[in-house]
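Let's do one together. I've listed all components of the complex below, 522 residues spread over two lines.
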Amino acid sequence: MVDYKRPLPIPNKDTKEFWDGCKNHELRIQKCQNCVRYRFEPSFICPWCMSLNTEWVKVSGKGSVNSFAVYRQPSEPAFADMVPYVVALIELEGIGVRMISNVIDCQPEEVKIGMKVEVVFDDVTEKVTLPKFRAVA
Amino acid sequence: MGNLKDRYAIVGIGETKFGKLPESSGLALALEASKKAIEDGGFTNAEIDGLLTQQPYLNPALMYSSWIAEGLGVNPKYTTDLNIGGATPISMVAHAVLAIEAGMCETVLCVFAEDALTGFKTPTHGRHRWGTEDFERPFGKNMPPGLYALSARRHMHEYGTTPEQLGAVAVTMRKHAAMNDNAQMRDPITIDDYLKSRWIVEPLRLLDCALMTDGGAAVVVTSAERAKDLKNPPIYIMGFGQGFTKFHINHPEKSLTSFQAIEGSKKRAFKMADITLEDIDVAEIYDCFTITVIITLEDYGFCEKGEGGPFVEAGKIEIGGEFPINTHGGLLSQGHVDGMNHITEAVKQLRGVCGKRQVKDAEIALVTGHGGEASTSHSTLILRR
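Okay, and this is what the predicted structure of the assembly comes out as:
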């Protein structure tokens, strides 16, 4: 964990709550209190109704694979020990939110579009936890 | 501002060599392409009074257009950097027209160059943020093949597009590049070579991806009136347009299999030009990846949605086919200078100077530009001789 060399997110004023949630093993997503839509990536105003009235909501972390790519060479050298790995566009169930993440704990050949997945938190450093996904058993 | 159709023209073009040019800095390439375009137009540097550029991707620089202006000895009345990704070169031509129309200047140089191949690993003073540092890069997703891999996978899933169909684009581009003395990759390839090329990001192979190129290209735009008695025949700007959709690939309204930015861009350009798809004789389609070409052809309506794969596989996009595209070899085989070379090639086709790769009787050309996270921006340019 101490030797983690891969690029990390740098939480800022807009995104800190999301990353704090991950640290606590909770997937927190913004929900507009005016038009009740969820949104991701985190942002200061609602892009649909421009309301500033936002709450952070803990969501289930269940979803499905919308599309995916298999990396047989790393995106950058720090990921070399991870190959082959899968980067997927995950569609979170019922809230209209998508996020890029990894599908882990399976062979790339097992990943399919439409596959049901759930969030699993990877504490990559003492400060940062990345939300990743694995197949629902 | 009335209808702009045919009231402005591209009157000068310039290209550096494309490929591995370790002796040339990115700025040197921009100056070389610019000098060639200015001289091709029969101008002196003193006659250029507008200058537009796009900052190089890998070695960004603030106020870069002023660096180029200084280097060329150009004293612009109007200059700026533009950036809407790979849609920028066409956007530069459009902005040139608008600036001249507004009376800000008369003759505008538009240039893009960078030393992306040999400058990639040299020390720089900084890098652009892609906007993917927090929510994509930590998961080992790369830019930009990682985006188009997601698009290609989804397109295969929804429409049954095959690797051989992606490969048909790569093979055709190489075939065209073989007829172009100024192309980075000219050795012919087969579908078998394509299928054997290594994975970059599965389902994309090496030969699905545009080249990394040292090089640059430039054009000079002026009014049709000014264009009348210049060195080369004017190539008239019939129409242009831009369109946009969301930036990030994770936005829920964004499609992986359709470039939503095309719709508005196409509509505005074809309306200005007052023509239909059937009037296009040759097209230079932004081809950062093979899948980009397939989706673009569909979304323009050159074939039905989902039929882009069979369309390219049937040889229709070859020179001599019913809809020849990327006659220079494209970003896939001529070189990746962000599509500035698509504009210079369209001008050459309309001038009728393309030799072996000339599309017979080409009168009207379509050029497309495309940028961002698998289509955030799109630009359309329609030219005629």
